[in-house]
Please model this.
Amino acid sequence: MNLLHWLNGPAFTAFGQHVIWSDMIGNTIGLVALALGWRRSIWTWPAQFLSGAILVAAYASAHLSGGVGKQLLVIGVAVWGWRQWQRGRRQAQDGSIAVRFAGWRERGLLIAGTAVGTLAVGGLFTLVPQLSWNPWPDAYIFVGTLAAMVAQARGLVEFWFAWLLVDVVGVPLAFSSGLAFSGLVYVVYLALVAWGMRDWWLRSRAAALAERPALEGAAA
Model:
C-alpha cells in the first residue's frame, strides 16, 4: 500500500460520514497553522505548507479541482509568506510581526482581485465541468483563500475577515463533498478566526495609538 492510497483511505466513520486520513491530518495541521498565525508565530507558514501538501490528496479524492488548486496556492503562498514575515520580524524591534489595518487602496485591490478572480476561475470551471462538480463555490473558496493568505503575509487585520467569508461557504461545501472532517474543522476555524480577529484588531489599534504622540510631536 503506497502513501497516497493510505492517505485517501478511511480513518473512521462518524454519523454516517466516512473520514479519510488526508482530510483529518491535513486539516488538523491547518488548525495548528491558524492558531500559530493568531499568535503571530512565523511557524504558521511551514505548518500551512505541510497542511496544503497533505490536503491536495484529500481534495483530489473528492474530485474538487478548485480545492486541489487552492492547496497548491497555499503551498506557494506559504513560501512567500515565510519570506515576508522573516523581513517583518527583522524590522520590528521586539522580534514580533507587526499587524495593521489595510489602507483603502489595499482593501479595494483585495476586493476587486477576489471578485475578478472568482469570476475567472468560476467561468473556467463552468466551461470545463470535469474540473469541478460545484464550480462557483469551489472558485469562491479557491480565490478567497489566496486573498486571505496574501493579506496575512502582509500582516493585515482584514485577513481574518477574508477567512470568515471563506468559511461561510467552505462549511456546507465540505460536508456536501464528503469531506466531513473538513466541514467540522471549518466550524472550529470560525471560533479561531473570531479570537484571532479580536487579537489582531486590538494590537493594531494599540500600535496606532502609540504612533500618534510621536507623529504629533514631529509635527509640532
Remarks:
- The beta strands are 10-14, 17-20.
